[in-house]
Amino acid sequence: MEGILIISAFLLGSIPFGYLIALFKGIDIRKYGSGNVGATNVARVLGKSYGIAVYVLDFLKGFIPTLIAVKSFGIESWVTTAVGLSAILGHMFSPFLLFKGGKGVATSSGVLFALSPLLGFLALVLWFVIYKKSGFVSLGSILSAFAVVYITGALGYPPNVLLMVGLVAVLVLVKHKSNIKRLLEGRELRV
């Protein structure tokens, strides 16, 4: 059962909702804006309501399988964090998009809320504060991803959760390398 759940989480995470919604509107989102298939680029190109829809769907890709794992195996189980990480990796490296994908923020937030509503809420609040102060979604995403690592350790979450959020923070950083370059050059777009 564990293997099936992990593979299912990856496949669910791989569904490129941003790409599919934009395609339904007649465009290949990869050719517009930042070229990313995530909620932020969809919001910039198609409008906020489409961006919100993509965020919710990408959030659920992480939330649903991780919640099933939490209920089945508990938060302390490595299976649970493997399921969450698989959903995030599926989103970031979708086989349906030739192993390209989103930056993993919405899916990661779904995983966090399933693991711990408190951890998910704190991450969301941090992201929102950083975004509102800076005006940059990318900066909020990067800084809150690393802040979650600290919070996870400080609040005494199990080692498997701490390791997973650490890995995810590094992946989020890597996926945002073009944003970081634009931030440093003063060319990053605000939403």
UniProtKB/TrEMBL annotation:
<keyword id="KW-1003">Cell membrane</keyword>
<keyword id="KW-0472">Membrane</keyword>
<keyword id="KW-0812">Transmembrane</keyword>
<dbReference type="InterPro" id="IPR003811">
    <property type="entry name" value="G3P_acylTferase_PlsY"/>
</dbReference>
<protein>
    <recommendedName>
        <fullName>Glycerol-3-phosphate acyltransferase</fullName>
        <ecNumber>2.3.1.275</ecNumber>
    </recommendedName>
</protein>
<keyword id="KW-1208">Phospholipid metabolism</keyword>
<comment type="pathway">
    <text>Lipid metabolism; phospholipid metabolism.</text>
</comment>
<keyword id="KW-0443">Lipid metabolism</keyword>
<keyword id="KW-0808">Transferase</keyword>
<dbReference type="GO" id="GO:0008654">
    <property type="term" value="P:phospholipid biosynthetic process"/>
</dbReference>
<comment type="subunit">
    <text>Probably interacts with PlsX.</text>
</comment>
<keyword id="KW-0594">Phospholipid biosynthesis</keyword>
<keyword id="KW-0012">Acyltransferase</keyword>
<feature type="transmembrane region" description="Helical">
    <location>
        <begin position="142"/>
        <end position="174"/>
    </location>
</feature>
<feature type="transmembrane region" description="Helical">
    <location>
        <begin position="78"/>
        <end position="99"/>
    </location>
</feature>
<dbReference type="GO" id="GO:0005886">
    <property type="term" value="C:plasma membrane"/>
</dbReference>
<feature type="transmembrane region" description="Helical">
    <location>
        <begin position="52"/>
        <end position="72"/>
    </location>
</feature>
<feature type="transmembrane region" description="Helical">
    <location>
        <begin position="6"/>
        <end position="24"/>
    </location>
</feature>
<dbReference type="Pfam" id="PF02660">
    <property type="entry name" value="G3P_acyltransf"/>
</dbReference>
<keyword id="KW-1133">Transmembrane helix</keyword>
<keyword id="KW-0444">Lipid biosynthesis</keyword>
<comment type="similarity">
    <text>Belongs to the PlsY family.</text>
</comment>
<dbReference type="GO" id="GO:0043772">
    <property type="term" value="F:acyl-phosphate glycerol-3-phosphate acyltransferase activity"/>
</dbReference>
<feature type="transmembrane region" description="Helical">
    <location>
        <begin position="111"/>
        <end position="130"/>
    </location>
</feature>
<comment type="function">
    <text>Catalyzes the transfer of an acyl group from acyl-phosphate (acyl-PO(4)) to glycerol-3-phosphate (G3P) to form lysophosphatidic acid (LPA). This enzyme utilizes acyl-phosphate as fatty acyl donor, but not acyl-CoA or acyl-ACP.</text>
</comment>
